[in-house]
Specification:
The protein has 416 residues and is an all-alpha fold. It is built from 15 helices and two strands. It has one domain. The N and C termini lie close together (9 Å). Its main location: membrane. It is found in: Cell inner membrane.
């Protein structure tokens, strides 16, 4: 089965045909491992101690995302279209593990290297409402979220290169417009369930876990009544080979991703994010072309040094490189790496979806990773609202997708 990132997030049923390792892809695996080793050494010799560790964490994140086909776009779409909450429940498990790990780290407040560990707690306002909605709409057209775009590129899904390119453009444009949205539009400031409400980290953890449990119970109860189709099996190996080839259970991936996010927090002082890297890449390209990017409000203050530094000094960029490379290794090791075909329809949706996601992520102070995953793990109310608003964008996208020839799951369909 060809890998379609974000189209397959599946719950892996036993008995699916075992994938085979194509001998032609062995050199790809070896080459990727050599690149990873060289880049790790380069970072160790030229950058701060955290950077090579972040690269390794990125590799593991990309490897996990690909092997589990762990998606956010398809999870939202399946739930919105037919009420299948399998992947959404995996999100809740991931978030429950994440808040359990983040709470003591944030309470202590220090990293492996002695720096401050702070959560992704961001403002609530019109900027969030517009940005998260646009992101939800865009990810359903672009065929992947922020993490999904990266691991789909690593897996060779050709159209996602287009999505990534316009994602970067959208994020850069969003940075240029951000002062208008964040300063001139109404905003109510940042709200942490732990530090802004008097609950403390234990109280915030308890409330969060209860909420995740409620979502799991509610989706199971809803499915019992509506009987939505289940996800189709994904090819997998058996035994220890499953680590290298074949798909992983969603719950396993959820736990691994939460642990890796906590290690990211302990390494660099902030959790996993994606789109600030896109903004930096686009801004630096414009700067080399002579544009006065440094004058933008987004790059003022503490961000000014980041704009002038190498991308290898930027933690999020290093994580992004690692995710792409990790997904490439996973796809090649599974004998699944291949470039896919493109056409006018999927290129047009990739352009629109990428622009909407990039612009929306910048307005909403993050994407499905930085705002939703890491934001909720950091006890930010902003993260919960991001998820609701992105789901609203998904509902609207269900009416738009057919205009571009994109399918919408029906109650009689099976998932693949």
């Amino acid at each position: 089965m060809a890998v379609q990132a974000e189209a397959v997030t599946g719950h892996q049923h036993e008995g699916a045909k075992e994938p085979s390792l194509n001998q032609a892809q062995i050199p790809l695996v070896v080459g990727a491992l050599i690149v990873a080793a060289v880049l790790t050494v380069f970072l160790a010799l030229t950058q701060q101690p955290a950077q090579p560790i972040l690269l390794i964490l990125g590799l593991l994140l990309g490897y996990t995302l690909f092997h589990a086909r762990f998606g956010f776009t398809s999870a939202f779409r399946r739930f919105a279209s037919v009420g299948n909450g399998q992947a959404l429940r995996a999100h809740m498990v991931m978030l429950a593990v994440a808040v359990t790990l983040f709470a003591p780290i944030l309470a202590i407040g220090t990293t492996f290297f002695g720096g401050a560990a702070t959560g992704n707690v961001n403002p609530i306002g019109i900027s969030l409402v517009v940005g998260a909605f646009l992101f939800g709409l865009g990810m359903q057209l672009g065929g992947g979220c922020a993490s999904g775009t990266l691991y789909a590129v690593g897996g060779g899904r050709t159209v996602m290169f287009v999505t990534l390119f316009f994602f970067i453009i959208g994020a850069t444009l969003g940075a240029y417009h951000l002062p208008f949205w964040s300063e001139e539009m109404p905003s109510f400031g940042s709200v942490s369930l732990a530090t802004s409400t008097g609950l403390g980290y234990f109280g915030a953890w308890a409330v969060s876990v209860l909420f995740f449990g409620f979502i799991i119970w509610w989706t199971l109860r809803r499915e019992k009544r509506t009987q939505p189709p289940r996800m189709a099996p994904v090819p997998t190996a058996s035994g220890w080979k499953r680590v290298l080839r074949g798909s992983w259970p969603l719950i396993t991936a959820a736990v691994v991703l939460a642990v890796l996010n906590a290690l990211t927090l302990l390494t660099r002082g902030s959790g996993w994010g994606v789109t600030s890297g896109f903004t930096l890449w686009g801004s630096q390209v414009l700067q080399t072309m002579g544009m006065d990017v440094a004058s933008w409000g987004y790059w003022q203050g503490s961000s000014a040094e980041t704009l002038q530094s190498s991308v290898f000094a930027h933690g999020t960029s290093v994580l992004n490189f690692g995710v792409i490379l990790g997904a490439f290794i996973a796809s090649a090791a599974g004998g699944l790496f291949r470039f896919t075909s493109v056409n006018v329809k999927n290129v047009s949706t990739a352009v629109i979806g990428g622009l909407l996601m990039g612009y929306g992520a910048r307005l909403a102070f993050g994407c499905n990773i930085g705002a939703y995953f890491t934001g909720i793990a950091s006890f930010s109310l902003h993260g919960y609202l991001w998820g609701i608003l992105a789901l609203a964008g998904t509902f609207v996208a269900l009416f738009i997708r057919p205009l571009f020839g994109l399918s919408v799951p029906k109650s009689k369909d099976s998932f693949c």
